[in-house]
């Protein structure tokens, strides 16, 4: 029996219908109800309400199902969120493999002038297939969003491990550094310069292998000016090479190698070689 406020009227409909069948077996319309409504009208009103509610639920469930699925991927929990994007865990419904989907809002990307940066990141990652670089599976889009499907890496950031332990043993640091150099050397061989290498962008998989991530600030060799150098100042201040902040042009490969040296120092020492709360003072130390 439906919940209130239909319960009482529904009981009256049932009682009137039963009475009609017993006494005259006449049409249901001939049995009046308190308030002057016929059983058919009461039942019709109730049925219309119920059907409307069920249609709403069906549309709602269909809408949720669409939002929980992108292409062949079933979306799960949010595992990361930033100003312009969020990253959600997802599962490939065909293979069952886990992936991470970076979801970008197109309106925000256009508003903040990030179109070229996103395009560059996607194009760069399409050039790279290496065991120590987070893999790009595919890119999809809708009217409002961009979906970048990436390899799902579960071991966390190298930064978190060092923050918890203070420093690494030499053998462990050597293993991570070798994997980092292998990945960076491969990128350079493909004409790709990361330009933001730091501990936070080095992830670990379940086997403890290092994975380089986040190519949002990367450059390719074709972006070099007539002098053969890159001229965009970018990167994280603590890891950036001196020539990058001198605004005279720099070699992308050498700038990446400087950042690798800073990473090696932190792995062994447990702290940054250049650090200051004031960015200007920090740059003076780097120079």
From TrEMBL:
<dbReference type="InterPro" id="IPR000719">
    <property type="entry name" value="Prot_kinase_dom"/>
</dbReference>
<keyword id="KW-0418">Kinase</keyword>
<dbReference type="InterPro" id="IPR008271">
    <property type="entry name" value="Ser/Thr_kinase_AS"/>
</dbReference>
<comment type="similarity">
    <text>Belongs to the protein kinase superfamily. CAMK Ser/Thr protein kinase family. SNF1 subfamily.</text>
</comment>
<dbReference type="Pfam" id="PF00069">
    <property type="entry name" value="Pkinase"/>
</dbReference>
<keyword id="KW-0808">Transferase</keyword>
<keyword id="KW-0464">Manganese</keyword>
<keyword id="KW-0723">Serine/threonine-protein kinase</keyword>
<feature type="binding site">
    <location>
        <position position="102"/>
    </location>
    <ligand>
        <name>ATP</name>
    </ligand>
</feature>
<dbReference type="GO" id="GO:0005524">
    <property type="term" value="F:ATP binding"/>
</dbReference>
<keyword id="KW-0732">Signal</keyword>
<keyword id="KW-0547">Nucleotide-binding</keyword>
<dbReference type="InterPro" id="IPR017441">
    <property type="entry name" value="Protein_kinase_ATP_BS"/>
</dbReference>
<protein>
    <recommendedName>
        <fullName>non-specific serine/threonine protein kinase</fullName>
        <ecNumber>2.7.11.1</ecNumber>
    </recommendedName>
</protein>
<comment type="function">
    <text>CIPK serine-threonine protein kinases interact with CBL proteins. Binding of a CBL protein to the regulatory NAF domain of CIPK protein lead to the activation of the kinase in a calcium-dependent manner.</text>
</comment>
<dbReference type="GO" id="GO:0004674">
    <property type="term" value="F:protein serine/threonine kinase activity"/>
</dbReference>
<keyword id="KW-0067">ATP-binding</keyword>
<feature type="domain" description="Protein kinase">
    <location>
        <begin position="73"/>
        <end position="287"/>
    </location>
</feature>
<feature type="signal peptide">
    <location>
        <begin position="1"/>
        <end position="26"/>
    </location>
</feature>
<dbReference type="GO" id="GO:0007165">
    <property type="term" value="P:signal transduction"/>
</dbReference>
<dbReference type="InterPro" id="IPR011009">
    <property type="entry name" value="Kinase-like_dom_sf"/>
</dbReference>
